Every structure is written in C-alpha cells, then in structure tokens.
Amino acid sequence: MVRYTLRRFVYMLITLWLIVTTTFILMKNLPGDPFENSEKLTKEQKAILMAQYGLDKPVWEQYVNYLKDVAQGDLGVSFQYPARKVTEVIAQGFPASLELGIWALSLAITAGLALGIIAALKHNTKWDYTAMFTAVVGISVPSFVLGPLLSYFIGVKLGWLPPGLWQGPEHRILPAIALSFSTLAILARLMRTSMLDVINQDYIKTAKSKGLSQFAIVTKHTLRNAILPVVTILGPIFVNVITGTLVVEQIFSVPGLGRHFVMSVYSNDYTMISGLTIFYSVILVFVMFLTDIAYGLIDPRIRLAKGRG
C-alpha cells in the first residue's frame, strides 16, 4: 500500500506541474495586456507597472519565478485589486463557494443514491420510470438554465424561497438544487445500473433462497458491492460541483469566487485567472489522489493492478 500511495503521489506532483506550466503558457499567449483597458495611463506609467509586476522580463525568467512562487503558495498580486494578493481574494471568497458546494454535494449524494436504489428495487415499475425520467431531465438541463428558472418561478413568482443573496439557511436551498441536479442525475443512473448488476449475481439469488429478508439482502450484500462504482467518481463529482459554483454564484448573488473569476476575465486580470485555475486544479488533483487511495483500500485488486502498471 505504501508503494502504491507513493506512486500516486508522484503522479499528482507531475500533473500539478503540467497544469501550472500549461496555465502559464496560455496566459502568456492571450491577446492584450492587463493594463490595456486603463485608458488614463500613459505609456510611461504602463511601462512602470509592467516592470513592477515583472512582466518586462524574459518569458523563461517569468516562468521560473512563477514556479517558485506557486511552490511557496504565492499566486501573485491581482491586477484588478493591486493591493491584494490572489490568495487573499481566494481566502475571502472560497468559504462561500465551498459551503454551497457542500450543500449541493450532500443533496446530490443523498437524493441520487436514493433514486438509484429505488429505481433498481422497483425495476420496470412507475417508480423506476419516474426516477429515470428525473435523471434524464437532470442530465439534459444545465445549472445555468435551471438556476434562473428556479429563481424566477420558485423565488419570485411563488415566493416560497429567496431568489438570491446569501444570508440564512433558506438562501442555500435554490442554489444547492440548481448546482446538484445534474450530479444527482448521474449518481442515480450509475447507482441503478450497479444495483441491477449486483442483484442478478448468483450470491444474491443464493441469499434469497436461504430466506433472508429483502432489507438484509440489500443492506448486507447488495449495497456494499453496488457502491464501488460510485466511489470511483466521487472525486470528479466533488470537483465538478465545486467548480460549478462559479456559474451558480452569479445567478443567485452568492459572494464566492465566481464573481472574481468573471470580473477578472473582463478586466484581463491574468494573475487572478491563472491563480483561480491553479487553485481549483490543486483541489481536483488532490481529491483524485484521495479517491485513488480510498478505492485501493476498498478494493485491493485495483491497488495491485495499478501497482503492476
């Protein structure tokens, strides 16, 4: 297990280096510069700012300095907020993004697994068809479409829940639903397929022939094996939900990182764009690393297979 963990850790570091390098190259090849929208600045003032931020140095030197800074946790100073570092902006905005992501992920896992289990146990019944119809709708309707619909109809027209802002618990419900719906649908379909596959196995039929109750069969035998495929995608799903907050936050006026990302794109704040990209990439790679370790513990066959690879 130690060798397997070290191997995955090295892969994680290589992946992070590739992401940082690719991000740097892309930012350097974007048209314009961070100060081109500052019409009041003279050429001399722009030159001073370029020198202040180290943008007048050779590209290779900028790259080396950038790698050193990122390795030390320094993502640079925002061009949009000159007095603030990108890490400070992230520290201020990420808690709201993380909270929204946790709300959405909790809803997606709970409702998605429940729908998948019900659909499998009630195969080819109205419960199965209803659950799968919900899943198809969830996969088909993106959060940036569902969000405004929920905000308008549930929040404005019916007045059941607040259509925006980020204050009490009731303000979390609509953004969490909008953000979690597609993930909920994916989990429901995956859980249903996995459950049906396990239910048709010989050892489940043997358990039924021994007179075990359906509750005992499901809890002791079916779920334990059917949950494995779901565990493998929890990492990507977590990251998908967290990064999805960037869009949903704009719809429901959540004070997270979404507004900073959008504003940085409009203002050519390359430091903020690359900083947020690297920040979310670190989360993705680290969660995938933990998922690999967890799956290796749950199913030793995966650990052995990857160890030989």
Description:
- The protein has 309 residues and is mainly alpha-helical.
- It has a domain at 87-267: MetI-like fold.
- The chain is 77% helix and 0% strand.
- The chain contains 13 helices and no strands.
- The longest helix is centred in the middle third of the chain and has 36 residues, at 86-121.
The first-level CATH class of the domain at 87-267 is given as Mainly Alpha
Question: Which percent range describes the beta-strand content?
Answer: under 5%
Q: Please tell me the CATH architecture of the domain at 87-267 by its name.
A: Orthogonal Bundle
Total of helices: 13
What do we call the CATH topology of the domain at 87-267?
Answer: MetI-like fold
Radius of gyration: 24 Å
Parts with pLDDT < 50 across at least 5 consecutive residues: none
CATH superfamily of the domain at 87-267: MetI-like
Largest sheet: none
Q: For the record, give the distance between the C-alpha atoms at the N and C termini, rounded to a whole number.
A: 14 Å
- Fraction of residues in helix: over 70%
Give the class from helix and strand content and strand pairing.
mainly alpha
Secondary-structure element series = HHHHHHHHHHHHH
Name the overall outline: flat
Mean pLDDT: 83
Number of strands: 0
Subcellular location: Cell membrane
Domain ABC transmembrane type-1: 94-291
Protein name: Peptide ABC transporter permease
Pfam families: BPD_transp_1, BPD_transp_1_N
